[in-house]
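Hi support team,

I'm filing this because I wasn't sure whether my run with manganese (II) ion finished correctly. The job status page said complete, but I'd like someone to confirm that the output block is well-formed before I use it downstream. Pasting the exact inputs I used:
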Amino acid sequence: MTSQLARVITIERFILDQEELIPEATGELSNLLYDIALAAKIINSHVRMAGLADIIGSAGLINVQGEVVQKLDEFANATMKHALLRTGRVCLIGSEEDVDPVPTPPGQAAGKYVVLYDPLDGSSNIDVNVSIGTIFSVHKRLSPDGGAGVLADCLQSGRDQVAAGYVLYGSSTMMVYTTGQGVHGFTYDPSIGEFLLSHPNITTPALGKYYSVNESYFPRWDARVQSLMKCYKGLDCGYEPKTSRYIGSLVADFHRNLIAGGVFCYPADSKSPLGKLRLLYECAPLAMLCEQAGGYASDGHGPILDIVPTELHQRSPLFVGSRDDVRLAEEMLAGPRP
Ligand code: AHG
Ligand code: MN
Ligand code: MN
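And here is everything the job wrote out:
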């Protein structure tokens, strides 16, 4: 038993060990990551009983995205805010579910970090018991220390993130994050209420076995995107055929492809010229994770991480996953528009 215990590494222990690798670390980012892990545990407890706790279904609201807000969206958003805004580590949060950034409450110390997040990703899957997730991105504030943060603190390129991660409420609940020292996965053990290290140093294959896209949009894509998808199917370009897997929860599709190799695509289309996914709290954090794991993330023409945002909820086309598969997307989209 002792030898088994010796191998148990909690996320708290792992974060501390990582902090010790950085001499100038103050421990604030470590504590921020604990705060997010705590929020994840609370959200997880409600996700796991969503069918019983009168927490499925619509909250009767429409959000800034024009989407129907699910009760679990709202609960997850409130949980993240509560876990982050009273700690003195954060000066501002930006949430998919709030029109504007939310500063620390008056009288509350404002810290040096900004957290951008999608509190519940894959909302359309909540009521049908399909995996959903939470995605987060951490930046250092640009505005002077002291007061609450400002919008400009949110509008930083993905390259400047200090941490990024997600929680996947799947067949098991996992938290996966990076602070720029590799990508590490932790599986939640409900019997002890801890995230335990289960996937240290995740790397993703250069060429993937899966491709993920909503094929129903085929008629809306320009011909270069249509040709790309035919390539992924092994048609017309001598490319090894891939298996199609798409469940409509970005975090779940991304995680499967990260572990097994694959490419997730949400291209621009005639109805959504910038695609659907949001740059700051969906594309950029997953792009940092993917590049840290040896993969690549592009908007079809260049690195997601180099895009300097101008709006909190701006959207971006996204091709993310196995490096060579994403590079093929850039090659195919570079050709002249037919
Ligand atoms: P959210 O629930 O946070 O709005 O995100 C939903 C996103 C993403 O999870 C998924 O990949 C995508 O929407 C699915 O979009 P389509 O239904 O258009 O395929
Ligand atoms: Mn989402
Ligand atoms: Mn969401």
